[in-house]
Design goal:
globular
């Protein structure tokens, strides 16, 4: 009989506190906030905009001492360009710059390069361009392969309602000297029924487009979903493959492409059952498909019932928040540790008497779940941590995996450290009377068998430094750079 362990918020006093190192750099004189670029060999890199609107790059050591600082200057005649961020590569930093030339009615996306000594080359490369007359969407978007050796740039040309969109893409090596894969292809669906959800590139140069497809009226069946997802692969050898994700009596709550080991991608997410009254809003069934990038075949495809993701008594609206998979980690026994978080966005539209329109946004980032499976993707344990963040100032989670243990960092009310169940867990929600001093930075540690503990890294009463979880970055297993707007923090889980 298969043993299923469901762990719900049980603090195990027998487990030792996790040893954590946390250090902060001095404040950075920025007009806005810093961007974390990455880290390698004990040196860590950021960028920010100074009071003179100059882009500045910095490097730090493990003790958060400033090592170097230099401006990032690009050789462009028109100074009114837009800096679109950077990728951290194995040998330097690749910058992206947007420029619109009105005289030519064209938009350009360039790349520039800085080495790890923060020296920026004068040479710029054009990696994408489009005419303003074309109905272009998603211009300037890009993706990087899991091993950071391939760079994808792309845009779409909007087709008429009953015609397909055209995808224009190029895959470069990281030095931007060679084109590995390129194409201008018609997407296999009518424009009016199609929305691009995600585009990625693998280590081999294959391009993956994930789209949400609304079914035609003639295709719809009562009790079945009105939409499905299609994954289209534009291979390096110019072959094209399609995979449809459509599950009877279920809506797909979320679907994501998550890179795995050995040149694989996971197409995975959670389903919402269309039957069952009130419980139809509960997404406790996961689909899990593993795609081999070399053969472009689905090696494993499975639907998995995941018990323990919701309270036994489902009463409140926040109990119905669907789960979104954040990360998948490979364990030593061949199984997986899957990190998920409840997430949803509700948009309410209001029409005023004078014809105006306003939109109200409610963001929910709620319970955390860590699902342990064996090498056959059978669920062995489910660890759930109650959390309620509706329009919270610092929502969501960041995770890392080290020594076969999963670590999750998040912010919550300090008083929730001793909460024993869902009922006693207080809401961490931004209100007129909420105060950051009531919160703390938490660390949740999960063993490979699902047993866990949680602890406070530090209480915000002890320090005014508040890291932003969503803009922080994992640079290696157990090593995380924390972004506190104008300060950089180094967190090492030993």
């Amino acid at each position: 009989m298969k043993k299923l362990l469901i762990v719900l918020f049980l603090l195990n006093n027998a487990l030792q506190a996790q040893e954590v190192t946390l250090k902060w750099a001095e404040k950075i004189p920025t007009k806005g906030y810093i961007s974390i670029l990455g880290g390698k060999n004990g040196t860590y890199y950021t960028s920010h905009v100074d009071k003179n609107d100059q882009i500045i790059a910095r490097s730090y050591d493990k003790n958060m001492n400033l090592v170097g600082e230099k401006p990032i200057v690009f050789n462009l005649e028109d100074k009114k360009y837009g800096y679109r961020g950077a990728y951290f590569l194995n040998n330097g930093i690749l910058h992206f710059i947007y420029e619109n030339k009105r005289k030519e009615d064209k938009s350009f996306l360039y790349t520039g390069f800085s080495d790890f000594n923060l020296n920026t080359l004068n040479k710029l490369n054009i990696v994408n361009e489009a005419h303003d007359d074309d109905k272009v969407i998603n211009f300037g978007l890009r993706s990087i392969s899991p091993d950071s050796t391939k760079i994808l740039t792309y845009h779409e040309k909007q087709g008429k309602r009953k015609e397909p969109n055209i995808l224009v893409y190029k895959v470069y090596n990281s030095a931007i000297t060679d084109v590995i894969n390129e194409g201008m292809v018609s997407l296999p669906i009518k424009s009016k029924n199609y929305t691009t959800d995600d585009i990625k590139v693998d280590n081999l140069g294959n391009v993956y487009l994930l789209s949400r497809i609304v079914k035609e009226k003639s295709e719809r069946v009562k009790g079945q979903s009105d939409f499905y997802y299609k994954l289209v692969v534009f291979a390096k050898d110019k072959s094209v493959k399609e995979f449809d994700f459509d599950y009877p009596e279920n809506d797909i709550s979320y679907i994501d492409m998550i890179p795995g080991n050995n040149n694989t991608f996971f197409c995975t997410g959670f389903l919402t059952n269309l039957k069952g009254g009130k419980k139809r809003l509960v997404s406790d069934e996961m689909f899990f498909a593993k795609l081999d990038c070399a053969t472009l075949k689905l090696d494993a495809s499975k639907m998995i019932k995941v018990d323990g993701l919701y309270p036994e008594e489902i009463k409140k609206n926040e109990d119905f928040v669907p789960y979104k998979i954040r990360n998948i980690y490979h364990k030593k026994n061949g199984g997986y540790s899957i990190v998920a978080e409840q997430y949803k966005l509700i948009i309410t539209t209001h029409h005023t008497p004078n014809g105006g329109v306003t939109h109200h946004y409610r963001y929910y980032y709620c319970d955390i779940a860590c699902i342990q499976t064996d090498n056959k993707i059978n669920v062995e344990s489910v660890t759930r941590m109650p959390k309620f963040q509706m329009n919270a100032a610092n929502p969501s989670i960041i995770s890392t995996f080290k020594n076969d243990k999963t670590f999750i960092i998040y912010e919550d009310l300090t008083k929730n450290l001793s909460a024993e169940n869902d009922k006693k867990t207080k809401r961490s929600t931004k209100t007129l009377f909420s105060s950051d001093s009531k919160n703390a930075l938490y660390l949740m540690s999960i063993e490979s068998d699902g047993k866990f503990k949680k602890e406070i890294i530090y209480d915000y009463k002890e320090s005014k430094i508040k890291p932003r979880v969503l803009s922080s970055k994992e640079v290696s297993p157990g090593e995380i750079l924390l972004n506190a707007d104008d300060q950089l923090g180094y967190l090492m889980i030993n």
